[in-house]
Design a protein that fits this description.
alpha/beta, Nucleotidyltransferase, domain 5, 3 helices, about 20% helix
Length: about 120
Amino acid sequence: MKICIPTETNKGKEAIVYGHFGSAPFFTLYDTTNGLIEIIANANQHHAHGMCQPMAALTGKGVTAVVTGGAGAGAIQKLNQAGIKVYRAIPGTVSDVGAQFADGKLEEISAENACAHHDCH
C-alpha cells in the first residue's frame, strides 16, 4: 500500500510530518509493502484557501491513503472521490507515521472533521 505523507523536508523516512496537507512543501510517498520512498515537491503549495488541487501531484502514483496533520474539507472530498482515504497523522517522522498506520492506530478524517484553515493541527 502506498501512503502520501505531507512533510516539511525531503529527508525521506526522517522527514517531519507537516501540519496541513495542501500547503506542505513536500509529499513523501511511502510504500508500506517494501519501504520504498518517493518524494514530490508540492508545486501547489502556495494556493488560496479552499483552492487546493491535491490530485495534481498524486495522479498516477498509486496512492491509496494520505496521512496528514490536517486537511480542508475540499481536499478531503477530492481525495475521497479518487478512492484515497485520509488519516490524521501523529506528530513525528515519516517512519513514526508509517508504523502507526501499519498498526491501524490512526483516525480517519472526513469532511465533517476537516480543518477550517491552514493552521489546523
